[in-house]
Amino acid sequence: MSMWLLLRRWMLTQFGQLSGRNLLLSSVIYAAISWLLLRLAGEQALTHSLTDFIYYLFVTASTVGYGDMSPTTDLGKWAVALFVIPGGLGLFAIGVSRIASLLIHYWKGGLMGKRSLKVNKHILVLGWNEQRTLSLINMLLHEEQGRRDIVLCVRPEMENPLPGKIEFVRVVSFTDHAGMARAGVADADCIIIDNPEDDVTLSASLYCANQNPTAHLLAYFNDEALSDLLKQHCPNAECIPSVSVEMLAKAAVDPGSSELHHELLSTNKGMTQYSVNFPSDKAETTIAPLFSLFKKQHDAILIAIDSGDGVELNPPLNKAVTADAKLFYIADERVDSFHWHKLGEHDV
């Protein structure tokens, strides 16, 4: 092995042990000594301008060597050969490796869920049920389509299952304050909690309700008793019980019911159930003109209403519809803009 390679390896080893602060200090000292040596050697062209001098150091240290600037005196050539090139190579190599290491660490931290997120008004999904969670997230991605960020927060040691599509955070538990803060629990617009263990779902729900009482909280339970317990402590929480048994019974009595329910819940094909709030600036009306409006103008079917006292399915045509009432409808796709102004027209 040549002396040059041995010297280069030794310098890289020494520079590699430098901290970030010492590396910056070493670079400043290196630049100052290089300028002094070249100045004493009579290299006026390399030292008369700070821009030219810094440019020359970077070109030399990076081994690019354009050749547009080079020492002309014998002393200058010795100074460059013995100090400027060896010192610059070491500092440049370790500097690039430090930057690359930071970038890789940042990317890996996001993939492993160790990075703090800067999100707001997002959908926070707590829990990992493998394929069921993936299906949930894919439906949310289809529904939202860039409206709200989706953050998956899990406990198992795993990587982001959908990098580039969702944000990802891994925590020790769903009641860990520091970990949940990284997931932006206090700033979430909607929190969905779905875990294999109902007790984990219950504790996570209570914690999230305390940290973010204004968020739309959804919790899935296998045991309906725990669902009722959560409603006692968090009346605003929306609990989704397991309906697998009910679905089996319904399909046995009315064949095809399971396919109908699957069609209504799927966001990837066929008709799907959506909701919209009746505008607060519109006068009170009834279901009858709205039913016609939905069908004629948007090919949608109005199926239910919630005026604040619970969902009423298949409401009568004379049911009053007041400001901010939530209207549930079935359509092929979500209607982005309803033609409310056509309520008073004779063809409606």
Automatic annotation (TrEMBL):
<feature type="domain" description="Potassium channel">
    <location>
        <begin position="29"/>
        <end position="103"/>
    </location>
</feature>
<dbReference type="InterPro" id="IPR013099">
    <property type="entry name" value="K_chnl_dom"/>
</dbReference>
<dbReference type="InterPro" id="IPR050721">
    <property type="entry name" value="Trk_Ktr_HKT_K-transport"/>
</dbReference>
<keyword id="KW-0407">Ion channel</keyword>
<protein>
    <submittedName>
        <fullName>Ion channel</fullName>
    </submittedName>
</protein>
<dbReference type="InterPro" id="IPR036291">
    <property type="entry name" value="NAD(P)-bd_dom_sf"/>
</dbReference>
<dbReference type="GO" id="GO:0034220">
    <property type="term" value="P:monoatomic ion transmembrane transport"/>
</dbReference>
<dbReference type="Pfam" id="PF07885">
    <property type="entry name" value="Ion_trans_2"/>
</dbReference>
<keyword id="KW-0813">Transport</keyword>
<keyword id="KW-0406">Ion transport</keyword>
